[in-house]
Please model this.
Amino acid sequence: MSDRHDLELIAALVPQGSRVLDLGCGSGETLAYLRDRRECAGYGIELADANVLACEQRGVNVIQLNLEEGLAIFGDQSFDVVLQIDTLQHLRNTERMLMETARVGRIGIVSFPNFAHWANRLSVVRGRMPVTKALPYEWYDTPNIRVSTYADFEVLARRCGLRILDAFGIQQGECVRRWPNLMASVAVFKFERA
Amino acid sequence: MTDLEIVSPQSMAFAQPLPLRSGAVLRDYTLMYETYGTLNAARSNAVLVCHALNASHHVAGRYEDDPKSTGWWDNLIGPGKPLDTDRFFVIGVNNPGSCFGSTGPTHLNPATQQPYGADFPVVTVEDWVDAQVRLCDALGIDKLAAVIGGSLGGMQALCWSMRYPQRLQHCIAIATAPNLSAQNIAFNEVARRAIVTDPDFHGGHYLAHGVVPKRGLRVARMIGHITYLSDDTMDAKFGRTLRAALGADAGADDTPRYTTQDIEFEIESYLRYQGDKFSEYFDANSYLLITRVLDYFDPAREHGGDLSAAFAQATAKFQIISFTTDWRFSPGRSREIVKALLDNRLDVSYAEIAAPHGHDAFLLDDARYHGVLRARFDRIAREIDASSRALSGMRIAT
Model:
C-alpha cells in the first residue's frame, strides 16, 4: 500500500500504544508509521528478501516467514491488533489465515482491492479484466489469486465467526461509507472474534 | 570497503579463579584477544565477536609475519564492512579450553606442572561467557553495543542476553540453536570416539608420550566437515568426479581404479586434505572439550524445558539469522529461538537466508546475509550516536 492517505485511514483504526502484528508488512512503512505516530510496538511478517532488508533498515522488527505456513509461532490473543493490509488476496488459504488473524489478535484489520468497484464492473461489462490503481496487473501476471468484493468479505467474516467492528471503502485516499461495494476500489474491515 | 591492516594478538592474565558450571575451578588463566577500531569516549561502541568450534580470537585482519593469516570473519569485519571498524571497537577473544593461546589443555596445570591434557576441566558456554565478561571488565566496558556469533558463537551471544542482560544492547545469533538435537550430539560423539580410540590418544595425556592422535583428529574433522556443507554444495563442488589421476595413470581420470583403500573420488581427497590440515594445528583434547561445550548448552533445561522462561530476564534487541540449507543448525531451531523471544515481547528480527552452502554459509559473503547485518550495525551506530548526543545535551543543560 503506497498511498499515504490509505495508510493514515487504516492507521486511525489502530488504538494508540497497541502491540501490532503486520502480516505481509512489505518494507515496514505501516509499522514505522504506527511506531512514530501512534506509539505502537510490534513485528512484521514478510517473505521477500528485499522487504526484510528494508524493514531492517527502518529499524522495524521483521520475521521472515511464509504466511502460508501459518502463525504457529504466535500465541493466542498475543497482539492487540493484527493487520493484513493488501495481503489477503495473495494467500491460498484465505479462510484459515483469517481465523489465525482472529486467534492471534484481539482486533483484526484487513484491506484488499474491491473487485466490485464500479470501474472494475464497467471494465468487465466491456469484456476485459480491470487494470486499475488498486488492481494494477494484467490477468496473466497478477499475484492476486483471491479476487473478491466488499460484500463477499462480509459473508466470509460471518462464516468465520467474526464480528465486524467497523468497515468502509477507500477511494482515492478518501473514506467511503456510502455504497462502498460500488464506490470504493479498496475495502477495509476491522473485526474481532465473535 | 578495505581490509584491516596488520593486526596483533594480545593476552591478559586473570589471577582470580574462574568457577565453572561443573563445580571445578579454573585457577589463574590467560585469555588471548584482539581488538580492532577505537573505543569511543563513552565506551559504548564495543562489539564482542564469539567464535565457534575451531576458530579463535583472530577474527579479522592479518599478522605481519604471515600474509595468509587472514582472520576467520574478515569478510564481515573491517573498515567500511558490515561490522565497520571505523565505527565500532571490535573484540575477538579465544575461549579457555581452546588451543589458540588462551589457557587450554596443552598448557601447564599449576597443580602438577604437567600439561593439563585430559585433566583440563570441562567448560561450558556459561563459563566462556563469564570469562568474556571479565575481559570486558578489564577493558572498562560496562555495556557492549552488540554480541555477535555464529553456530557455537551464536549460543554464546544468546547466553550473554540471558546471563548478563544489562551488559549488551543487541544480540546477534546466526546459524545457531537453543540446544543440540540428538542427531547433532551423535555427530559430535562419532568425532570424539574417533579421537579417543586413536592408539596415540593415551587417555588424553598424549603430550607426555610425545605423540598426537592425528588419525582420530582427521576423522573427527572429516565427519564435522560433511555436516557443515549441504548435499547440493558437495554435489556442485565434487559430484562424482574421480580424483584426477596422477603419474602413470595420467589421462585415465574418467576410469575407476576399483580400489577399496586408495582415494577414488574427489570428495575423498578433499576430506582427507581437510582432515590432514586440521590435525596439524588443532588439539585433540580441545576438540573433545568444545564439542562438549556444544552438547551441554541447553538454557531451557533449568526451566523445565521452557525456552521462553529462559529468556525471561533478557532485554537485548535480537537479530536471529538462519540459512535454508543448514541442516546441522536448521531454520526450525532458529524459529524456536524467535518464538521464545516473541513470547517475552522482546525486539527481534529474523532473516532466513536462502543460501546453498549449508551451515558454512554463516562464514561466507552473501549479499542478503551481509545486507541485513549491515543494516543492523547501521542501526546500532545510529543508536550510539543518538545516545551520545543525548548525553552531551544533558551536560550542556546542567
